[in-house]
Amino acid sequence: MQVVMGLGNPGPRYAATRHNVGFRCVEAAAAALGLRFSAERPEYRAAVGDGPAGPVTILEPLTYMNRSGLALAAWARDAGAVVAPVDAEDADPAPGITVPIVVCDDIQLPLGSIRIRASGSDGGQNGLASVLAVVGHQRVPRLRLGVGPIGATVDPEDWADYVLAPFADEERERVEDLTVRGRDALLAVLADGPEGAASRHNRRVRPASDLPEPP
Length: 215
What we know:
By secondary structure, the chain is α/β, with parallel strands linked by helices. It is built from five helices and seven strands, in the order βαβββαββαβαα.
């Protein structure tokens, strides 16, 4: 069983915000697979069915972004799955450990960028940090979707306000494109693993000034 976690905040107040592109992506992937989010618990809702490589469960935490790990722990209890090493000193997941694939926004990547990694730190993404704290290791595949400004950065003290704001009207076309490409990247991760998918789907958007002049 493969497990995917799309990170975001529940409710209409947050649906259009930058922080919720993880939800957008996994919902698009679920629709492409013909899956519906029908299993709902206080901590999460789930879509369960067949993915490109076998059974898959797609989770959307209802615990709010910064406590996303609580949703994973609740699902593990309900499913009888093990998501953390028995030995807290174990740096890698052992056979029989369920390792989720996390899909989340990344303010440090320009809007429209995609970065797939098989492991690593949370990079300042609090939802991913919460998941890593629950599993007890960093070998968690993640699909990061860039929501940052193109050709600029956001001061860390302004990150919360930025990601909790809705996309601007002029960004909507780029967001729709990101959702489609993120969906395809996630399906590739499920089919081929993060390394195989990364070579085809990793992309960093550059400002127009950085692009070569046309001939």
